[in-house]
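Q: What structure does this chain adopt?
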Amino acid sequence: MIMKLVFPSLAYKEKSIEFINEFNEYNSDINGSGALDDYLESSTYEEWIKKVYADIDIANIPQPRVPALTYFYVRENDDKIIGMINIRLALNDFLTKEGGHIGYCIRPTERQKHYATDMLNSALKVCDTLGIKEVILTCNKLNVASSNVIKNCNGELVEEFYSETFKEDIQKYIIKR
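A:
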């Protein structure tokens, strides 16, 4: 199966709405979407696209946000959005401690098919081109699937702590490149 990271565009509007709707149908958390779910609820896909493009340049971003790249993870044979991944180009104090460089999600009906590991590996190649040598990732301690994905990509557990922000135990990993 050939997969690719695709920068969001108007061509993916309907597929992205379908993607987010699936998370809502399954009552599943959405991470790494660059706030697509929030924009579809309170604004428009077109406004979200503007935000995604603005997010690339720190000059466009109010403090304490950081520049980021958001991608769809698309299966080539049917052009279906399988996942989303957000790569932060810099970290603020909060992201250094609790969020990390990368957030991601796989649509509920496509989980347990190794897509997340492949998508994270693709994102790590983007990090390589950006010169990010130590990639920080975090996940809920109870999210065994996500911790396994991170470990499959050579993530080393460096810390476990309780997050007052998320009200859950967090595992923090570093992937050295």
